[in-house]
Write a structure and sequence with these properties.
Order of helices and strands: HHHHEHEHEHHEHEEHEHE
Number of helices: 11
CATH class of one domain: Alpha Beta
Shape: elongated
Distance between the termini: 96 Å
Strand content: 5-15%
Number of strands: 8
Helix content: 40-55%
Radius of gyration: 32 Å
Largest sheet: 6 strands, parallel
Oligomer: single chain
């Protein structure tokens, strides 16, 4: 074909390419591009969603494995086959209630009054005072233990997880000297712990396993950071308490506060006075104290506080046990 004929053919094709035809071709091109993009994006998006669901499923499976582990431990502690059957029934009931729990239990209008009424229901004549220390261990824990040993007093330590700080000997000393080892969350990060029931479970299981590895003791006692009536939790607190119950863990709040948790400094005399102004009105006095690097005034107050409590008539200082009356701001129904 000659050059002249080729040029004429091109000119004829250009004449035939009307504006309407060009628009149709452009639309077709765009449709093809969009189809290709969708063919790439849809499988990719599906893989991402499946990956997220798989990750959550694995986390849930790990959480359930830990629950089974501790529930099996509770069954192994049963004395005979009858106890095991009763334990199974109790566990099944608690898990059922946990699955169906909804809504938040509002804290009592006066938590102090509610706790006082609960304490007043005790039948024993002897007043029981529980010295409880939150947030430890700290640089002062051993000083606290020395003072308790000097007065032959047993207390309860609601500890956090401080594996990297080298407090292994302190955790073991708490147990070896006859004090009660309680749990106060591993991280003590409110935003993370209370973000979901899954987060709470993971934090608790991490701490419980950590303490068992350090001391050989499986703790059965818990204190909520901020108390069970805290306003931080985004998870229904009854779901959490039902979970604790299923794990054979009792939680304790307090009805006597030393006031040493605030940013306002209190000297040792003020701490003693605050506690002693409250203790006489309770037959079961759960005293909230703190074991932290910025709370040395609490340590300084401890000898005088113990002496004044021991001077009260028909009063003894004891550690939390399975038989201890529950002091709870939000009742575990």
């Amino acid at each position: 074909m000659s050059t002249e004929r080729v040029e004429e053919t091109k000119k004829g094709q250009n004449r035939e390419m009307t504006p309407g035809r060009r628009k149709r071709i452009d639309r077709l091109k765009k449709m093809i591009v969009r189809a290709v993009v969708l063919m790439i994006l849809l499988p990719t998006t599906g893989c991402i969603i499946l990956g997220i669901k798989l990750h959550r499923a694995r986390q849930y499976a790990e959480s359930m494995e830990w629950q089974i582990y501790f529930l099996e431990g509770a069954l192994q502690d049963s004395v005979d086959a009858t106890d095991r059957a009763e334990a199974l029934l109790r566990i099944n009931e608690e898990l059922r209630q946990s699955a169906g729990a909804s809504g938040r239990t509002a804290p009592p209008a006066d938590a102090e009054e509610a706790a006082g009424e609960e304490a007043a229901s005790g039948t024993e004549d002897t007043r029981k005072v529980y010295l409880t220390f939150d947030d430890g261990p700290s640089i002062y824990t051993e000083e606290i233990l020395d003072i308790l040993a000097q007065y032959n007093v047993k207390a309860t330590f609601f500890v956090t997880g401080k594996g990297k700080e080298g407090y292994g000997d302190v955790y073991r000393r708490i147990v070896d000297e006859g004090h009660t080892l309680g749990m106060h969350s591993y991280s003590h990060e409110y935003g993370n712990i209370y973000a979901s029931l899954e987060n709470f479970q993971k934090d608790l299981e991490t701490l419980r396993n950590f303490l068992y590895n350090e001391t050989g003791v499986v703790s059965h006692f818990y204190r909520f950071p901020g108390g069970s009536s805290n306003n931080v939790s985004r998870t229904d607190i009854r779901e959490i308490t039902a979970y604790l119950k299923a794990m054979d863990i009792e939680y304790f709040d307090w009805n006597v506060s030393a006031g040493d948790a605030t940013s306002v400094y209190l000297n040792s005399g003020q701490i003693v006075n605050r506690v002693m102004n409250q203790v006489p009105s309770h037959r079961v006095a759960m005293v909230l104290l703190h074991d932290a690097a910025d709370k040395h005034s609490t340590v300084e107050a401890l000898p005088k506080l113990i002496e004044e409590i021991q001077e009260l008539e028909d009063t003894e200082i004891v550690p939390i046990t399975k038989e201890t009356m529950l002091i709870q701001h939000v009742a575990n129904e």
